[in-house]
Amino acid sequence: xxxxxxxxxxxxxxxxxxxxxxxxxxxxxxxxxxxxxxxxxxxxxxxxxxxxxxxxxxxxxxxxxxxxxxxxxxxxxxxxxxxxxxxxxxxxxxxxxxxxxxxxxxxxxxxxxxxxxxxxxxxxxxxxxxxxxxxxxxxxxxxxxxxxxxxxxxxxxxxxxxxxxxxxxxxxxxxxxxxxxxxxxxxxxxxxxxxxxxxxxxxxxxxxxxxxxxxxxxxxxxxxxxxxxxxxxxxxxxxxxxxxxxxxxxxxxxxxxxxxxxxxxxxxxxxxxxxxxxxxxxxxxxxxxxxxxxxxxxxxxxxxxxxxxxxxxxxxxxxxxxxxxxxxxxxxxxxxxxxxxxxxxxxxxxxxxxxxxxxxxxxxxxxxxxxxxxx
Length: 375
Fold this sequence. Notes:
Strand order of the largest sheet: 3-2-1-4-5-6-7
Strand content: 15-25%
Oligomer: single chain
Radius of gyration: 21 Å
């Protein structure tokens, strides 16, 4: 029977709704009445229109801000009171906390917190302690907690912020699965790709690619240092950093002025730009579950990741890529150098990646979420 339950999905920051791509419309087609609660941001109504759902805008900030947070909570309670949801499924730390508080206060019968990462993992001191307490409290208010990767669930249990009886991982991980049909080398527009190769002068170059915020926590500093060493002995190597820059000006100047490094602002057509890569790398210090390594694998690109929480679940060591010790620049350099020097290994791991990516389809994740809604 089709469901007529009212479902509210929630994230904090405008633009984070892309974490729910296709999921909202999937549940709408199953008969759920679906809403998105998130920041009052221009990207959110566009997302909701595409998915065919309604937006519930809230003035909310990701950082700790007691006065704004109280006002956000009041707004969320008002929205929930008006909608009277049967199910609330919220993720990202701030909306996770405030959404669960509002849902508990109003007695929502199914409260789900989707944990997409442990923000405190890379913090220190008082801020870390506060974020740990927020995480524990959020978990205490939920009926079920979806951890988006096996290593994330293990880390949450290890840090004492999880409740084993509530903790669920769907399949082998991922919060929303990967649209593997969009990430196929055959689906790339050959003319557009040729134009980009010409624009960035990538003919006969070996390209290492990174997609994400260019920031310390994403391992950008180790990556740039490793690439500088590779470039010293191989002037045909290139590093593409694609994403928003969130680092100190001196470091930005360092990579922007390097002859072998190309920065590209974040692009909507990720598969097209990924098709330029020979090797994909994510040297992040912490993740929940990164989808980008799976997208790269689906494109037939070998993948290098750190063994940080979340990252370690996104690659099969020695099959479609290599996992190295987080924050260890010397190890990262060795791994990248090996792939740059060995085209045969790149082809082998790239081909294996296409098989690996099939484990993380969107449908597998959505079916798993549906089962939790129906518990």
